[in-house]
Amino acid sequence: MIRVQTEDFDIGAEVKALTSGRTDIGALVTFTGLVRDSNGGTVASMELEHYPGMTEKELSRIEAEANERWPLQASLIIHRVGKLSPGDNIVLVVTASAHRQAAFDAASFLMDYLKTRAPFWKREETGDKSHWVDARESDGEAAAKWDT
Amino acid sequence: MIRVQTEDFDIGAEVKALTSGRTDIGALVTFTGLVRDSNGGTVASMELEHYPGMTEKELSRIEAEANERWPLQASLIIHRVGKLSPGDNIVLVVTASAHRQAAFDAASFLMDYLKTRAPFWKREETGDKSHWVDARESDGEAAAKWDT
Amino acid sequence: MPDVSSKQMKLLYFAWVRERVGCGAEDVELPEGVATVSDVVGWLKGRGPGFAEAFARPELVRAAVDKVHVKPAASIDGAREIAFFPPVTGG
Amino acid sequence: MPDVSSKQMKLLYFAWVRERVGCGAEDVELPEGVATVSDVVGWLKGRGPGFAEAFARPELVRAAVDKVHVKPAASIDGAREIAFFPPVTGG
Predict the structure, then answer these.
(1) D25 in a domain, yes or no?
(2) What pTM did the predictor assign?
(3) B108: which of A88, B1, C44, D26 is 20 to 30 A away, CA to CA?
(4) Which domains are present in chain A?
(5) Structural domain containing residue D47
(6) Residue C86 and residue A135: Cβ atoms within 8 Å?
């Protein structure tokens, strides 16, 4: 399941919705990405732009690939867009499996792929200036390791 | 922070307590272990025995080791004991860091070490029979990979 | 010989590409001979200073044809929508 | 020569070791010459059929001295509490 939304998400509620009434899940991993004030108290806000239509398409494709690679009982990607403040949630990834290794690997894979393929762009506002966040080379390397 | 308890835990509430008011966390990983009905609908319940005193000591030691190995902003281990049913939560591990790799690795490390070192024992009740769950060799191998 | 109607194209720009170009979306008629994403970039660079600046270092700009990531050499044959944007920074 | 009082020991048993032994905790006086965890196991095996069964395959039983995991060869000198249990299965 994938969702792109401006509203915040509730990790506990999302997990409950995925696991409720099931007894085949042994391991559940969540990853939450948050707006971090990387400049030590100077980032006032962040604007998340995306490519409507392509975003959903890419996230669905990434999720489908994770489900092909690992035996998942459930998976979820939620990504927020619009204006966010330091400490706010940005992205939630949930993976559930019978065993922990699959759940951990699938969540890590989803984040690595999302970081390099899903069409989102961050702009940080610092005081009266703003700048587009640069892509990190390490994200490309992290995604490449799943190609082996 | 570590806790051993009979009551259930609320992932959302635990995460909120760890992150509330902070802007230095960029990545947060949770791992939840649940009672899985591995026999296809026949496991009626599970009893979790532990070694009071040693459990807390081992969990604290494991958590301290994770904090030495990775730059964590927050960490939490909650493990339930007593009688549990299929679908119930057993264990919660939360790790928070500036970047996602540290959060993922630390959570995975905590689970691998907990699985091989924390003094818990599971007994599954199936109909009118019960048996002690056998330790998995793969858990020992998973823990050993962090020794390098 | 390519169908004339195939040269009608929707172009989309995101993030700093959008800011430099000065608009987020436009419908254009591509000239004859424009066959690849790279050709489109070459044509766009001649459309004004904003475009020239946005595509000054084409290696910094990524493209998607009909919402699928593509390389500069990708054909635009049959495409309806081409998007240009910086490397993504979500998550 | 070891202090006589050091031979007073609390023994704890968990999971199927506890079930086979028939009790979860007991205070014992260890005989002279019992110096390692392995020695304790050897002594326990002679205390009755439940103990013999619990420690029939000593490699299946783990031990902790004063709440710290130890190997069979570990000394029990100065220990106050020794626990015996199967490999752990939490998480």
Answers:
(1) yes
(2) 0.94
(3) A88
(4) 2-144 (3.90.1170.40)
(5) 13-85
(6) yes
Residues 10-49 of B with CB under 8 A from D: 33, 48-49
A and C: number of Cβ contacts within 8 A: 72
Min distance A9 CA to chain C CA atoms (Å): 14
Report the number of distinct structural domains present in chain D.
1
Distance CA C18, CA B70 (A): 39
Dump the DSSP string for A78-113.
EEE-EEE-TT-EEEEEEEEESSHHHHHHHHHHHHHH
Dihedral angle, C-alpha B37, B41, B43, B45, nearest 10 °: 80
ipTM above 0.90, yes or no: yes
Q: What is the pLDDT of residues A94-147, one digit of tens each?
A: 999 999 999 999 999 999 999 999 999 999 998 888 999 999 888 988 999 998
The CATH number assigned to the domain holding C62 equals 3.10.20
DSSP D87: S
In a domain, D8, yes or no: no
Chain C: give the shortest CA distance to residue A23, in Å. 30
Asked if residue D66 is part of any domain, the answer here is yes
Do the chains contact at C90 and A115, CB–CB below 8 Å?
yes
Tokens 């001979």 sit on residue: C33
* pLDDT tens-digit series, residues C15-58: 999 999 999 999 999 999 999 999 999 999 999 999 999 999 99
The token pair that represents A114 in the structure block: 């999302």
Q: Kindly state whether residue C68 falls inside one of the protein's structural domains.
A: yes
- Write the pLDDT tens digit of every residue in D30-87: 999 999 999 999 999 999 999 999 999 999 999 999 999 999 999 999 999 999 999 9
